[in-house]
Design a protein that fits this description.
The chain has 2 helices and 6 strands, in the order E-E-H-E-E-H-E-E. With 114 residues, the chain is α+β, with helices and mostly antiparallel strands. The strands form 2 sheets. The protein has a 4-stranded mixed β-sheet with strand order 3-4-5-6. A hairpin with a 2-residue loop joins strand 5 and strand 6. Helix 1 runs antiparallel to helix 2. The longest helix is centred in the C-terminal third of the chain and has 16 residues.
Length: 114
């Protein structure tokens, strides 16, 4: 099956802009999870490791393994551009699914506030 994944644009000045790329994956009903696995493995690994997603009342709760990026810096202290480069691709990818209305980021100890 085909999944549309929104990835960060390659232009370093376009922090919040994304572009759609289509990936072929084995058929699944867990499209949000499959989409985020691809997105984090191939495009957002700098921002940490994706763990899971749960969808409750239209809110996609994206669980990361930590509230730190791959260099050990806390995500809450990321620059505005870095935060947008993480949030926008995830938001754009998940909001394409009708059951999702908003996106939150979490880690095992709580919610990540940007």
């Amino acid at each position: 099956m085909s999944l549309g994944i929104y990835i960060p644009k390659t232009d370093p000045l376009s922090c919040s802009e994304t572009e759609r790329v289509v990936y072929q994956v084995p058929k699944t009903t867990a499209v949000a999870d499959a989409s985020l696995k691809i997105l984090f493995e191939k495009h957002l690994s700098f921002y940490g490791k994706y763990k899971s997603v749960s969808i409750v009342n239209g809110v996609a709760k994206v669980m990361l393994e930590s509230d730190m990026d791959s260099t050990g810096h806390y995500l809450i202290f990321a620059t505005g551009c870095q935060r947008q480069s993480l949030f926008e691709p995830v938001k754009d990818t998940l909001l394409q699914y009708p059951s999702i209305k908003s996106v939150e980021f979490h880690y095992p100890k709580g919610k990540i506030e940007f």
